[in-house]
Amino acid sequence: MSRTVRCGLIQASNALNSRSLPQVKKAMIEKHLKLIEQAAKKKVKILCLQELFYGPYFCAEQDARWYDLTERVPDGPSTQLMQKIAAKHGMAIVVPVYEEQMPGLYFNTAAVIDADGRYLGKYRKHHIPHVHPGFWEKFYFTPGDLGYPVFATKYARVGVYICYDRHFPEGARVLGLNGAEIVFNPSATVAGLSEYLWELEQPAHAAANGYFVGAINRVGREKPWNIGEFYGKSYFCNPRGKIIAQASRDKDEVLVADLDLDMIQEVRRIWQFYRDRRPETYTALTTQTGQTAAAN
What we know:
The protein is an alpha/beta fold.
């Protein structure tokens, strides 16, 4: 019997340009609740929201006022709200939020909620960029410390990678080794230098590891920063690295695709990448310089 799972990705523009953070958050949550309803009507079983879904990409500036957007996970209001929504629709949901572990210790986090509303756990973004112009993430986030967990939802085994993580193949491989069938990457990336990588790196992760990838990018220009155009183009790709569904560049959208999980075994029986790994030769990957011995 085929294991086909209908999955969805939500890409959305910023709903409100305001100095009032509660109003900004309220507007974005209301927008997402409507988009989640659309996903439910399309019978989506696993849904992923975009990076830091309840606000703009505030890392475009360095201002401590944005610390007020942090929440505890799983005890914060957004996670608890999405638990109710997940249970209502019988839908597993990946919920990216700005997490406060304790005062002054903050993470870029995704909570994973099962279809019955149970909180399964969280992933914390590992790789934190600090890039000019407009990606000042080290001001806001501590590097993730929970490893690369995989969550057994009702419908599939789900892993999460967040935005800048996608440039690093090491964690993508660990997610595969940990049993991920679908890896979601909620992101916020603008047109320009890295756009050519958008449809290159993650299909390569999918092919190298034999799993599905759902990649999300927000849309539009966000004031007052105007660091560039968030160009959408969210997509799903299969274990062969082929993009099988893709969203538009410039509008709010719920992208839906049916993922045949049996393809994972089919592909891995041909490409035996896990069998043929040589981990004993990879020690250089765990050193800062990559040097394992002095040159002669």
